[in-house]
Design brief:
Keywords: Cytoplasm, RNA-binding. One of its GO terms (cellular component) is cytosol. Belongs to the SmpB family. It comes from Simplicispira suum. This is SsrA-binding protein. It is a single chain. With 157 residues, this protein is of the alpha+beta class. It has one domain: Small protein B (Small Protein B, Chain: A, Beta Barrel). It has four helices and nine strands; from the N terminus they run βαβαβββββαββα. The strands form two sheets. Strands 1-8-9-2-7-5-4 form a seven-stranded antiparallel beta sheet. It has a two-stranded antiparallel ribbon with strand order 3-6. A hairpin with a 2-residue loop joins strand 4 and strand 5. The longest helix has 25 residues. The protein is globular and about 60 Å long. 20% of the residues are buried.
Length: 157
């Protein structure tokens, strides 16, 4: 049985991903960071919304993830907020992902950043884009759940 991560271990979530994509498979990958980036992650200065994962030369890279530097960053380091970050997965997993991504309609999207045993990890998903009518269905479902919660709340008073 998989252990649920603490809510305190979460760094950032990509909330737009669930709206724009259907998730087929999920993977947890390590992420290669510089020292100032780790400090900024601890402060929560990260934005995953526009991030995506690409495969180059048999390796995975996270592009578009903004890690904003702290004002107290060292003077000898020139921080770049939108730096391309390498992701770490087993070779077998990467080969499997390469085969899946080459199929029509599949892409890799980052879902969230979190801490695991003191290391920053990123959850990525093999995803297929939603059509416009699927997005409308998602909105209808969300509004329906809100309405049910409103009625239940007013009934319990």
């Amino acid at each position: 049985m998989a252990k649920k991560p603490d809510s305190s271990s979460r760094i950032a979530d990509n909330k737009k991903a669930a709206y724009n994509y259907f998730f087929e498979e999920r993977y947890e990958a390590g992420i290669v960071l510089q020292g100032w980036e780790v400090k900024a992650l601890r402060e929560g200065k990260v934005q995953l919304t526009d991030g995506y994962v690409v495969i180059r030369e048999g390796e995975l890279y996270l592009i578009g993830c903004q890690i904003n530097p702290l004002k107290t960053a060292s003077t000898h380091v020139s921080p770049e907020a939108a730096r391309t970050k390498k992701l770490l997965l087993h070779k077998e997993e990467i080969k499997r992902l390469i085969g899946k991504v080459e199929q029509k309609g599949f892409t890799l999207v980052p879902l969230n950043l979190h801490w695991k045993d003191g290391r920053a990890k990123v959850d990525i998903a093999l995803a297929k884009g939603k059509a416009e009518h699927d997005k409308r269905d998602t909105i209808k479902d969300r509004e329906g759940k809100r309405e049910v919660e409103r009625v239940m709340k007013s009934r319990n008073r």
